[in-house]
Amino acid sequence: MGVADAMTLRGWHARLSLGISLLTALAFALPLAFFARQQAAERAQQTSERRAATLVTVLGATQRRSELAAAWRSSGDDALSTCVRLGGGVVGRCPAPAAYAERAAERRRALWVRPPGREEVLLLPVSLPDGGTAVVESAVREEERSEGVLAAWLLLAGAVAALTLISVTGADRMARRLNRSATELARAAAAVGEGDFRGRVAVEGPVEVRRVGRAFNAMADRIDELMRAERELLADLSHRLRTPLTALRLEADLLAVPADSRLRAGLTALDREVTSLISTTRSGPARERLPGRSSSDLPAVVGGRMEFWSALAEAQGRECRVWLGRGPLPVDLPADDLTAALDALLGNVFRHTPPGTGCGVQAGLLSGAPRLVVEDAGPGIESPALAAARGASEGGSSGLGLDIAGKAAEAAGGRLVVDRSPWGGARVTMVFAPVPDDGAVDASGNGHRWTGRSGHRNASGRPPRNAAGGGTAET
């Protein structure tokens, strides 16, 4: 995940505020810093002019070199930066070459010059009573040009930092309210995604955020209302099955044929499923199942359920082969869900193939993973990808049989595979998540051991007999 992806709304808002504040502050601070440096340079030139003016005053009172030298020496530190060129002689230390002074004398006006590698110098020509011209030189010291600049820059930097801090702090306080609203909205949305429709968000913050909060609360209310209505409808429909089911059980009690025991067993199982459906729909969404907390033994569950289907296959003249691997072989799926998936797959076979069409069931460790395989010798499935989609059917049914098995396989960390069986019909494989080696034998390798059911105890691969006639594909 990149930095941009991990940044929170509050962090993004703080960085944006920091950038805008810095740009705004620097837009004012940089010109002020340049102005402070210019002011320091102008003050240094004015100081140089005052030093030169002092010597001009002395020069107007006397032209004697001894007196001029005494006045120059008494100027203190100014003597290090000034001098007077008079009648071919020099009083003091001249900061500029003589050629510059001669040029100023010829033009008879003050000049600012900067000799190569030296400081800036003021050349001030002075007319003498005898008709001659003297030149007063005064240099601008570099320390005077930067005097007070650093302090001004530090003051500006502190002002920029203080203004930026105030701006970012204020923006962060506003962003905190916006971030709190967004966080609460994300929390409530996550709760809705997990099936909890009771969460609502507080409608506060900017207009746009309040609008989103109201829309989310309305959506959650509507979803909760629809879910309750759907659960009540399913529970009512399930409960309405009780009446004909009770009538069927009463009719079964009146039967005196050997088949009545199987009929009673089927009605009892149907009654149990209806009761479970009513309880599930009225209790709302189930909690997420924890792995390993509701596992079942694949061969044992399949073997127990095949007692019922084998009897039904015998009644319809079907040759149903059952292979069970050596157990125990746990899969991360409750026994009821595993039984429902097996019933859905075998129900497809019995509904959509003619009586007498053979079928086979394998349950065990195959190719390193627990698998449940249901195959038949019917016409097969023309579009396996379409058949695996929920509600899709090529045979006029509801199209939910394979979806039930697929959901069960995914809940156990596996997948559903639909293809063609070696007998030419359909083959549906539920592949479960691999389990640690706990002694189960892989039937795809050496040493496999299968237990045959319905009178068959070999794995020769000979297809079961298939009654003549057509049939529809399973869905």
Describe this structure in words.
The protein is α+β, with helices and mostly antiparallel strands. The protein has 3 domains: 1-196, Beta-Lactamase; 240-283, no CATH class; 296-453, 2-Layer Sandwich (Heat Shock Protein 90). Helix content is 52%, strand content 14%. The protein contains 13 helices and 13 strands. The chain has helices spanning 3-6, 9-61, 65-73, 98-107, 142-145, 149-193, 207-240, 242-254, 260-283, 298-315, 335-352, 384-387, 401-411; strands spanning 82-86, 89-92, 111-113, 121-127, 133-139, 296-297, 320-324, 330-331, 359-366, 369-376, 415-420, 426-431, 451-453. It has a 6-stranded mixed beta sheet with strand order 11-12-10-9-7-13. Helix 8 (242-254) packs antiparallel against helix 9 and helix 11 runs antiparallel to helix 13. The chain is rod-shaped. 28% of the residues are buried. Keywords: ATP-binding, Cell membrane, Kinase, Membrane, Nucleotide-binding, Phosphoprotein, Transferase, Transmembrane, Transmembrane helix, Two-component regulatory system. One of its GO terms (molecular function) is phosphorelay sensor kinase activity. InterPro entries: 2C_sensor_his_kinase, HAMP_dom, HATPase_C_sf, HATPase_dom, His_kinase_dom, HisK_dim/P_dom, HisK_dim/P_sf.
